[in-house]
Structures are given as structure tokens and as C-alpha cells.
Amino acid sequence: PILYSYFRSSCSWRVRIALALKGISYDVVPVNLLKDGGQQFSAEFKAMNPMQQVPALKIDGITLSQSLAIIHYLEDTRPNPRLLPQDPKKRAQVRMIADLIVSGIQPLQNLSVLKQMGEKKMEWAQNCISSGFQALEHTLQHTAGRYCVGDEVSVADLCLVPQVFNAERFKVDMAPYPTITRINKALLELEAFKVSHPSRQPDTPAELRA
Question: Are 153 and 190 in contact (CB under 8 A)?
Fold first, then answer.
């Protein structure tokens, strides 16, 4: 497998966690979202992913984009360890939390949107994340065990950790979100979350390396 990734992309990080959890070896092709006006806009990359976003994964003779589509494919083809609970209610909760983050928070503060916001980008990102985290904190109080849904790592957790990383980058006050903070801390102790961390990628700038 070949993963087209950017070290600080939260969408790429979700996929890196899934690959690590499932023990799938892969090669990384870095796509720098800032250099050369954004390498994702090159004709070569656009031919592979018309949305001009990372991640993209070449695997099993196909090329997939969109982080959740990639993760669901890995889950379907390499089901161990399981990232979606067998219980239908818990499975629905996992998907709900993942969607809350992937659709309701992350796109509002990603690079393409922040470029449009100019000098207000920090304030915009803080507001979008805080609003989403208020809903997420309330939701997790009903679903969480050690992790987002019960005590098993799920797709929801793969989405949570990169989003908290973004919140910290944008200096969001995490004090109102004790459940999010607790789960994030527990997940960051797991090896798959450590090796996939933005500070430990091939394209991580020297000053940001762990």
C-alpha cells in the first residue's frame, strides 16, 4: 500500500492510526499542502484524487480517497482488530461521533477554509471547534467508557485524537471538555496513536519532530 499523506493533516492521521492498529505496512508519499502553492494541486495528484485533498491510499489495485471510506475498506478487508462494534447500537454511536467530527467540525477549520478567513482565521477556527466540542462532550458523556464508545478503540477514536490536536494548535480552551480530554489522553498512550502522530512522520519538519 502507498499512502499519500501530509504530516499535520488530521484526515491523513486518522488513516495512519487505522493502518497502525491493523498492522498494515505501507509506504508514504508526502504531499506538502503548503509548499509550491500546495502540492495537492499538481496535475499528477489531481489525476489520482480529483478533490485534491489528502489522504489517498493505493491498496489492492484500487485508489481510495476520503478518510472514512478508506478506514471502512480496511475494516471490511482486514477486520482484525475490529474498529466497528458488533452491537448495532454501539456501531451507530461510533458512526454518529465520527460523523460529528468529520462533517461537523473538521471541514469548517481545514486549510482551504482558513485561507478564506484571512486575519480572522484563528478566531474562526476556535469558534468552530468550540461549538462542535460542546456537542461532542455532551454526546460522549452518554457513550464513553475508557474510549469514545465503551472500552474498545473504534473509528470514533481515530477521529477524536487528530481533532483535539487541531484544537490545541488553535489554542482552544479544553477546560470545558473533561471527557474529550480524558479519552484523548488515554488514546495517546497507545502505540498506534504514537507512531502515527504528526511529530513522527517522514515529512515532519525538524523543529516539530518528537
Answer: yes
Architecture label for domain 2-80:
3-Layer(aba) Sandwich (3.40)
Q: Which CATH architecture has domain 88-193?
A: Up-down Bundle (1.20)
Domain boundaries, given as residue ranges, for the chain:
2-80, 88-193
Sign of the Cα torsion 38, 42, 46, 50 reads positive
2-80 and 88-193 agree in CATH topology:
no
In the prediction, which pLDDT does 111 show? 80
Q: What is the mean pLDDT of each run of 10 residues along the chain (210 residues)?
A: 96 98 97 90 91 96 97 98 98 98 90 86 94 98 98 98 97 98 98 98 94
What is the residue type of 88? P
Q: What are phi and psi of 62, to 5 degrees?
A: -125, 160
**d(Cα 163, Cα 143) in Å, to the nearest integer?**
18
Residues 6 or more apart in contact with residue 149 via CB below 8 angstroms: 85, 90, 93, 94, 97, 143, 156
Q: Is-above-0.90 flag for pTM?
A: yes
Q: What is the DSSP pairing of strand 56-59 with strand 62-65?
A: antiparallel
Q: What is the pLDDT of residue 36?
A: 85
pLDDT at residue 107, rounded to an integer: 83
Amino acid at 75: E
